Amino acid sequence: xxxxxxxxxxxxxxxxxxxxxxxxxxxxxxxxxxxxxxxxxxxxxxxxxxxxxxxxxxxxxxxxxxxxxxxxxxxxxxxxxxxxxxxxxxxxxxxxxxxxxxxxxxxxxxxxxxxxxxxxxxxxxxxxxxxxxxxxxxxxxxxxxxxxxxxxxxxxxxxxxxxxxxxxxxxxxxxxxxxxxxxxxxxxxxxxxxxxxxxxxxxxxxxxxxxxxxxxxxxxxxxxxxxxxxxxxxxxxxxxxxxxxxxxxxxxxxxxxxxxxxxxxxxxxxxxxxxxxxxxxxxxxxxxxxxxxxxxxxxxxxxxxxxxxxxxxxxxxxxxxxx
Length: 323
Description:
Layout: E1 10-20, E2 23-28, E3 39-40, E4 43-45, H1 52-64, E5 74-82, E6 87-95, E7 110-113, H2 128-135, E8 139-142, H3 149-163, E9 167-170, H4 177-193, E10 197-201, H5 204-208, E11 215-218, H6 220-223, E12 236-241, H7 244-252, E13 257-260, H8 276-285, E14 291-294, H9 302-307, E15 312-315
Parallel strand pairs: 1-6, 8-9, 8-15, 9-10, 10-11, 11-12, 12-13, 13-14, 14-15
Antiparallel strand pairs: 1-2, 1-4, 2-3, 2-7, 5-6
């Protein structure tokens, strides 16, 4: 991870996402604490000479009495945030192997909540990307090629049935605006039937023209011309990014996630420059929102993307039927 600005003290905070039966452990901050009264994930400061994993095992035990095997911890996201009176780096890790019964050892109320029950306004601002990361899938399914609208819908239905993705980005660059509008309108009920969130691809007018869409993904050319978030809170906003400046712009627009790539060579763009995993990792370390790795990837790359700090992978081949 790259460091904070020179001369500015940064507090390294280990944050735990403890998951059990699809629910996440949440506590309420004491009224006298910084950001008092708000909800929070368990955790605390990493002490000098202490690893973040050791800090999490210690903090979870001290705060909740739960026992966590250190090897069960998996990186979720890193978030740098400046509150004005303090700068923090939230180093967020997840475990699904906590043992024991949770209780508020410091007198704090604790509860288990579904990710969709977590509301932004109940948490400190810096925690909001954590909520996004918990709600987003590890694999963002992107639609691929089809000869016409009928085949596109057939492929969509077949891919949904086989892979059961939680979220689909409806991308069809070869279609005209009219054809894409028809595709999106037909895709909404198909995705709804499989419990899948449909994200449309294009400018703000595409989202407005697609009732039932759960979000909008902006190509960079669309994002570059916007001055503010183009869709309401409560629906997904994604942006296609390729470098730090574009990621920073997506954050300023209020994006919920970005795709970043191409990480590896792709069949669709042979010979095009690629980031590689190291550059991807470096860019993710400074991004304060979930980042999907994109370009030339397969499900076998999911672990690498996660180890590099990414939310997961985005792509076509792992779910879209081949013509």
